[in-house]
Amino acid sequence: MNRQPMQNGSQATSTSYSSLLRMMKSGIVVRSTHYEVEDPFFRQWIYQNIMQ
User: Fold this and answer.
1) Which of 3, 21, 34, 36 has the fewest Cβ atoms within 10 Å of its own Cβ atom?
2) What is the per-residue pLDDT for 1?
3) pLDDT means per 10 residues in the chain (52 residues)?
4) CB count in 10 Å sphere of residue 45
5) Taken in order 45, 29, 16, 22, is the CA torsion positive or negative?
6) How many C-beta atoms surround the C-beta of residue 40 within 10 A?
7) Cα gap 25→38, rounded to integer Å
8) What's the pLDDT at 29?
């Protein structure tokens, strides 16, 4: 399974952006000077699962 779609361009930019907007609306992702996952535990879970 490919766990890094953003690094090899396998996901369309519009799909990535619409997903990002949905996550911002639900409070999962916040933006200040950059985009960031709000919950530190969820951020860690994402990082651990992407790196496997």
Assistant:
1) 34
2) 46
3) 55 83 95 92 90 70
4) 12
5) positive
6) 9
7) 12
8) 94
